Amino acid sequence: MPMINVLKEFLATKGVETAYQFHKKTGLPQATAYRLYNKRNVYPDQKTQEIVCRVFDAQPGDFLRYEPDSAEESAKHDTQQSTSTVSNLKSTPFSADDESPGLMTEAA
Protein backbone atom coordinates (compact mmCIF):
# COMPACT_ATOMS: atom_id res chain seq x y z
CA MET A 1 0.00 0.00 0.00
CA PRO A 2 2.25 2.82 -1.21
CA MET A 3 -0.24 5.68 -0.63
CA ILE A 4 -1.37 6.25 2.95
CA ASN A 5 -4.28 8.42 4.08
CA VAL A 6 -3.05 10.33 7.16
CA LEU A 7 -6.13 12.55 7.34
CA LYS A 8 -6.91 11.58 10.94
CA GLU A 9 -3.47 12.70 12.14
CA PHE A 10 -3.63 15.86 10.05
CA LEU A 11 -7.07 16.77 11.40
CA ALA A 12 -5.87 16.28 14.98
CA THR A 13 -3.34 19.07 14.37
CA LYS A 14 -6.27 21.26 13.28
CA GLY A 15 -8.33 20.50 16.40
CA VAL A 16 -10.71 18.07 14.68
CA GLU A 17 -10.92 15.02 16.94
CA THR A 18 -13.80 13.02 15.42
CA ALA A 19 -15.15 11.96 12.04
CA TYR A 20 -18.37 13.76 12.94
CA GLN A 21 -16.52 17.07 13.41
CA PHE A 22 -14.78 16.48 10.07
CA HIS A 23 -18.16 15.88 8.40
CA LYS A 24 -19.65 19.05 9.95
CA LYS A 25 -16.70 21.32 9.07
CA THR A 26 -16.41 20.16 5.45
CA GLY A 27 -20.02 19.43 4.56
CA LEU A 28 -18.93 16.12 3.05
CA PRO A 29 -21.48 13.29 3.16
CA GLN A 30 -21.30 11.61 6.54
CA ALA A 31 -20.38 8.20 5.10
CA THR A 32 -17.53 9.74 3.08
CA ALA A 33 -16.21 11.68 6.05
CA TYR A 34 -16.29 8.62 8.31
CA ARG A 35 -14.63 6.37 5.72
CA LEU A 36 -11.81 8.86 5.02
CA TYR A 37 -11.31 9.57 8.70
CA ASN A 38 -11.14 5.93 9.80
CA LYS A 39 -9.53 4.03 6.91
CA ARG A 40 -5.91 4.68 5.95
CA ASN A 41 -6.27 2.84 2.64
CA VAL A 42 -9.15 5.04 1.38
CA TYR A 43 -8.12 8.06 -0.67
CA PRO A 44 -10.14 11.21 -1.27
CA ASP A 45 -11.09 11.99 -4.86
CA GLN A 46 -10.06 15.31 -6.41
CA LYS A 47 -13.21 17.19 -5.38
CA THR A 48 -12.88 16.00 -1.78
CA GLN A 49 -9.18 16.94 -1.73
CA GLU A 50 -10.12 20.43 -2.89
CA ILE A 51 -12.72 20.74 -0.11
CA VAL A 52 -10.25 19.59 2.57
CA CYS A 53 -7.57 21.93 1.22
CA ARG A 54 -9.94 24.90 1.15
CA VAL A 55 -11.49 24.32 4.57
CA PHE A 56 -8.22 23.59 6.37
CA ASP A 57 -5.87 25.77 4.29
CA ALA A 58 -3.82 22.71 3.37
CA GLN A 59 -2.10 20.90 0.51
CA PRO A 60 -2.85 17.26 -0.47
CA GLY A 61 0.58 16.26 0.82
CA ASP A 62 -0.53 17.32 4.28
CA PHE A 63 -3.04 14.45 4.50
CA LEU A 64 -1.70 11.92 1.95
CA ARG A 65 1.70 10.27 2.24
CA TYR A 66 3.63 7.96 -0.09
CA GLU A 67 5.34 4.95 1.50
CA PRO A 68 6.80 2.38 -0.87
CA ASP A 69 6.05 -1.28 -0.21
CA SER A 70 9.00 -3.24 1.13
CA ALA A 71 9.04 -5.33 -2.09
CA GLU A 72 9.12 -2.15 -4.20
CA GLU A 73 11.87 -0.71 -2.01
CA SER A 74 13.91 -3.91 -2.32
CA ALA A 75 13.54 -3.96 -6.13
CA LYS A 76 14.50 -0.29 -6.30
CA HIS A 77 17.58 -0.94 -4.16
CA ASP A 78 18.63 -3.90 -6.36
CA THR A 79 18.22 -1.78 -9.52
CA GLN A 80 20.23 1.08 -8.04
CA GLN A 81 22.96 -1.33 -6.96
CA SER A 82 23.31 -2.94 -10.42
CA THR A 83 23.24 0.48 -12.10
CA SER A 84 25.97 1.65 -9.74
CA THR A 85 28.12 -1.38 -10.59
CA VAL A 86 27.71 -0.76 -14.33
CA SER A 87 28.53 2.93 -13.85
CA ASN A 88 31.67 2.05 -11.92
CA LEU A 89 32.78 -0.28 -14.70
CA LYS A 90 32.17 2.37 -17.35
CA SER A 91 34.02 5.04 -15.41
CA THR A 92 37.12 2.92 -14.76
CA PRO A 93 39.71 3.93 -17.35
CA PHE A 94 41.68 1.22 -19.10
CA SER A 95 44.92 1.77 -20.91
CA ALA A 96 47.27 -0.54 -22.79
CA ASP A 97 49.69 -0.28 -19.86
CA ASP A 98 47.14 -2.04 -17.64
CA GLU A 99 47.71 -5.46 -19.21
CA SER A 100 47.17 -8.25 -16.79
CA PRO A 101 48.06 -11.93 -17.24
CA GLY A 102 45.58 -13.68 -19.46
CA LEU A 103 44.18 -10.44 -20.89
CA MET A 104 44.63 -10.24 -24.63
CA THR A 105 44.33 -7.00 -26.54
CA GLU A 106 43.92 -6.62 -30.26
CA ALA A 107 45.00 -3.69 -32.38
CA ALA A 108 42.27 -2.19 -34.48
Automatic annotation (TrEMBL):
Q: Name one Pfam family in it.
A: HTH_26
**Which residue intervals make up region (Disordered)?**
69-108
Comp. bias intervals (Basic and acidic residues):
69-79
HTH cro/C1-type domain: residues covered: 7-69
Q: Which domain of life, per UniProt?
A: Bacteria
Q: Where is the composition biased (Polar residues)?
A: 80-94
This one is known as Helix-turn-helix transcriptional regulator
Q: Which organism is it from?
A: Anabaena azotica FACHB-119
